[in-house]
Automatic annotation (TrEMBL):
<keyword id="KW-0560">Oxidoreductase</keyword>
<dbReference type="Pfam" id="PF01207">
    <property type="entry name" value="Dus"/>
</dbReference>
<feature type="active site" description="Proton donor">
    <location>
        <position position="82"/>
    </location>
</feature>
<feature type="binding site">
    <location>
        <position position="153"/>
    </location>
    <ligand>
        <name>FMN</name>
    </ligand>
</feature>
<dbReference type="GO" id="GO:0102266">
    <property type="term" value="F:tRNA-dihydrouridine20a synthase activity"/>
</dbReference>
<keyword id="KW-0547">Nucleotide-binding</keyword>
<keyword id="KW-0694">RNA-binding</keyword>
<feature type="site" description="Interacts with tRNA; defines subfamily-specific binding signature">
    <location>
        <position position="281"/>
    </location>
</feature>
<dbReference type="InterPro" id="IPR001269">
    <property type="entry name" value="DUS_fam"/>
</dbReference>
<feature type="binding site">
    <location>
        <position position="52"/>
    </location>
    <ligand>
        <name>FMN</name>
    </ligand>
</feature>
<protein>
    <recommendedName>
        <fullName>tRNA-dihydrouridine(20/20a) synthase</fullName>
        <ecNumber>1.3.1.91</ecNumber>
    </recommendedName>
</protein>
<feature type="domain" description="DUS-like FMN-binding">
    <location>
        <begin position="1"/>
        <end position="304"/>
    </location>
</feature>
<feature type="binding site">
    <location>
        <begin position="193"/>
        <end position="195"/>
    </location>
    <ligand>
        <name>FMN</name>
    </ligand>
</feature>
<feature type="binding site">
    <location>
        <begin position="215"/>
        <end position="216"/>
    </location>
    <ligand>
        <name>FMN</name>
    </ligand>
</feature>
<feature type="site" description="Interacts with tRNA; defines subfamily-specific binding signature">
    <location>
        <position position="165"/>
    </location>
</feature>
<dbReference type="GO" id="GO:0000049">
    <property type="term" value="F:tRNA binding"/>
</dbReference>
<feature type="site" description="Interacts with tRNA; defines subfamily-specific binding signature">
    <location>
        <position position="284"/>
    </location>
</feature>
């Protein structure tokens, strides 16, 4: 999720679940090809990891997909769901739903240069193009060129007039439409996304669908990930406590600090770790007030934990 998740968050998520497939935030082809930083950097612990690409130039997407496959990513996912203006002016994201042929060309170009899966994340429609037939025409055209996995955010996007945030809340969720898609395309791998907050809800969806993608809840309340392996994937290893998760995260944070990184770059992903627990506000507050300070170290996390018991 742009501006929210990064490799530090994904490292934390991976401590809690070895089974999850993790996705990067959307990375544009322009950033990868022309940017100064290394936009493909990640920790090897994050695998299995999908790189989500934003773009609509088939050759650029192919170039980025190839680089990503060489770097060890496990899947390339094309973003056909982001409604932001910035993204529309670059002609990628959700507006690409209106041009399934171009999406098919993009998928074809990527599939020609990588052996890892090339998948698509999309909406159920855009603007007034929100019929089931519009969705199936999109899926037909894109699956015809060999894309066999779709992650469907179960609400349409209004490209004019709604902000990205509103586009994640205002258009109503229509899970039935995604279930119907799975029924009509039993050979495709269809994952559902949007508004899922608990593992019980995931289980319900999995009765109808192949996968569930969880966004905001997995970020704001990350500890829900701690039971994924046991409750959804049949693992019989024991569930880590919140403190055990922190303990496993500390060496990673220490390494980051030794390398000159700032504490708050990591702790910003940890503020929701104790959501719903007594003292969680004290934890959150202490971290927000102290982790950004010059020279802040592991002691801030230890103190924040102690504050919870006060
Ligand atoms: C801050 C933020 C950034 C997001 N960035 C991306 C992104 O980069 N790529 C993407 O496919 N979806 C992005 N999304 C959308 C989520 O992946 C997801 O589709 C949406 O929030 C609905 O799922 P949820 O209710 O589980 O959060 C973002 C969402 C938020 C809140």
């Amino acid at each position: 999720m742009l501006d929210w998740t990064d490799r530090h968050y994904r490292y934390l998520a991976r401590i809690m679940s070895t089974e999850l497939l993790l996705y990067t935030e959307m990375v544009t082809t322009g950033a990868i090809i022309h940017g100064k930083g290394d936009y493909l950097a990640y920790n090897s612990e994050e695998n299995p990891l999908a790189l989500q690409l934003g773009g609509s130039n088939p050759q650029d997407l192919a170039t980025c997909a190839k680089l990503a496959a060489e770097r060890g990513y496990d899947e390339i996912n094309l973003n056909v769901g982001c409604p932001s203006d910035r993204v529309q002016s670059g002609r990628f994201g959700a507006c690409l739903m209106a041009d399934p042929k171009l999406v098919a060309e993009c998928v074809t170009a990527m599939k020609q240069v990588v052996d890892i899966p090339v998948t698509v994340k999309t909406r159920i429609g855009i603007d007034d193009q929100d019929s089931y037939e519009f969705l199936t025409e999109f899926v037909d055209t894109v699956s015809d060129v060999g894309c066999d996995t779709f992650i469907v955010h179960a609400r349409k996007a209004w490209l004019q007039g709604l902000s990205p945030k509103q586009n994640r809340e205002i258009p109503p969720l229509d899970y039935q439409r995604v279930y119907r898609l799975k029924q009509d395309y039993p050979k495709l791998h269809i994952s559902i996304n949007g508004g899922v907050k608990t593992l019980d809800e995931c289980r319900q969806h999995l009765l109808h669908i192949d996968g569930v993608m969880v966004g905001r809840e997995a970020y704001q309340n990350p500890y829900i990930l701690a039971e994924v392996d046991q409750r959804l994937c049949g693992s019989n290893k024991s569930v880590l406590s919140r403190d055990a998760v922190l303990e496993k995260f500390i060496p990673y944070i220490e390494k980051h600090l030794v390398e000159g990184g700032r504490l708050n770059h990591i702790t910003r992903h940890m503020t929701g770790m104790f959501q719903g627990e007594p003292g969680s506000r004290a934890w959150r507050r202490y971290i927000s007030e102290n982790a950004h300070k010059q020279g802040a170290g592991i002691e801030v996390i230890e103190q924040a934990r102690k504050k919870m018991d006060c």
